[in-house]
Amino acid sequence: MINLSSELQIDQFRPSDMAQVVELEQLCFKDPYPWWLLSELAHRNPETFVIAKVNDRIVGYAIIDHWEEHYHLVSIAVHPGNRRT
Ligand SMILES: CC(C)(COP(=O)(O)OP(=O)(O)OC[C@H]1O[C@@H](n2cnc3c(N)ncnc32)[C@H](O)[C@@H]1OP(=O)(O)O)[C@@H](O)C(=O)NCCC(=O)NCCS
After folding, report:
1. Ligand 1: which atom is nearest the Cα of residue 84?
2. Which of 13, 14, 25, 61 has the fewest CB within 10 Å, making it most exposed?
3. How far, in Å, is the centroid of ligand 1 from the Cα of 83?
4. What is the pLDDT of residues 57-66, one digit of tens each?
């Protein structure tokens, strides 16, 4: 866990975060990833699927997938109300 300020906390994704991440995904993308793809990415990347929380509410996430020869930022999203912060 990384505390960037008194409010913002970065954590590794846990299965219990899925409902909020799906909600965020649907809010941020016209063509959101389905939960099962997010779940597969989480399974493949336990250390590099990270979420950002403010006051215990998920406001962002990033998924870095391990490809054969490099790491790839597959998706990144920040809640519209928390952008540019
Ligand atoms: C992309 C996103 C995560 C940025 O969040 P944010 O909190 O505003 O990010 P920051 O404050 O760190 O950076 C804002 C900068 O990113 C730029 N930016 C926003 N979306 C961008 C994109 N898709 N590609 C490149 N740059 C982008 C903004 O123009 C701004 O640049 P500026 O400071 O030069 O004006 C957010 O806009 C978002 O969730 N968008 C919807 C999901 C999305 O399109 N994700 C990216 C593709 S996976």
Report:
1. 11
2. 14
3. 8
4. 999 999 999 9
